[in-house]
Amino acid sequence: MEGARGGMRGGEVTMRHIKPPIVDTRDLPVLVDENKPEGKKSMREIQGWMGQESLKWLANKAKTMRSIVEVGSWKGRSTQTLLENCPGTVFAVDHFLGSEDERTSTHKEATERDIFLEFWENVGHYKNLVAMRMSSVKAASFFRPGSVDMVFIDGCHNKENVQADLIAWVSIAKVLVCGHDLGQIQGAAKEIGYTLRDDGGGIWVL
Ligand SMILES: C[S@@+](CC[C@H](N)C(=O)[O-])C[C@H]1O[C@@H](n2cnc3c(N)ncnc32)[C@H](O)[C@@H]1O
After folding, report:
1. What's the CATH fold of domain 70-206?
2. How far is Cα of residue 77 from the mean position of the Cα atoms in its chain?
3. What is the SS3 string spanning 23-61?
4. Which of 50, 99, 109, 113 to mutate to test the pocket of ligand 1 (most atoms within 8 A of CB)?
5. Residue whose CA is closest, atom 22 of ligand 1?
C-alpha cells in the first residue's frame, strides 16, 4: 500500500514523502501530516551505534522540543527515539550513502543496498517524520536561522564534515545543538572555535 505522501510502489521507492523547501517551523507548534495513516508499529530494536544511556538522554531532550533536525539517521535508531518523544516534527537528514570514510568498514552495507529502505521500514510510519534524503549542507540550506528548536548531529565524523556540519547548522538551532561521538569530533570542532561539552555516553552539547 502507498501512503498519502509516498512509499513503495512495485519495489521502487518514490520520493513524494520528502517535503519541498518549506522549512520554517517558527510559527508551527506541531507540524504533522494528518493524512498519513496511523502507525501500527511499536518501538523496535534498530541497528545503530547509540547506547541506551544516550537514547534516554535524547528522549528526555526531545520531549521538550517543538521541532528537531537530526543529521545522520542511518536505519533510524536515534530517529525512532526522537520521533517517539518529540511532540512536533523531526526532520531526518541523511543521504543514506554511509559516511565517506566508513564505506569500507562500518557503513559498507550502504554500498551494497539502499539503507533508506530499512530506515523507511523502521520509522516511515511516524506522522511527525519528514525525511530529507540529501547531504547535510544541502538540507541546511532549506532552513532559516533559529527555525528549529534542536539540531542533533551524528553524521560523518571526519574533520571536513564535522566542521561543515557545525558551520551549516549552529545558527539554525534556536534552543540546542548537540550530537554524538564527542571523542571523534571535538578536535575538529575546537579548530573552528567550538568547545563541545561532554554530557555523558558520547553525547556532546554546544
Ligand atoms: C553514525 S551514522 C548515524 C547513526 C544513527 N544516528 C543511529 O542512531 O544509528 C552516520 C550517518 O550519517 C550519514 N551521513 C554521513 N555524512 C553525511 C552527509 N554529509 N550528509 C548526509 N548524511 C551523511 C551516513 O549516511 C550515516 O547514515
Report:
1. Rossmann fold (3.40.50)
2. 10
3. CCCCCCCCCCCCCCCCCCCCCCCCCCCCCHHHHHHHHHH
4. 99
5. 94
Measured in Å, residue 46 CA sits from the centre of ligand 1 at 15
Give 10-residue mean pLDDT values along the chain (206 residues): 37 44 44 52 85 96 98 97 97 96 93 95 94 95 96 97 97 98 95 96 95
Q: Provide the whole-model pTM.
A: 0.84
Domain map of the chain by residue range?
Answer: 70-206
Burial status of residue 65 (CB atoms within 10 A of its CB: 0-12, 13-18, 19 or more):
buried
Is residue 59 lining ligand 1, measured as CB closer than 6 Å?
no
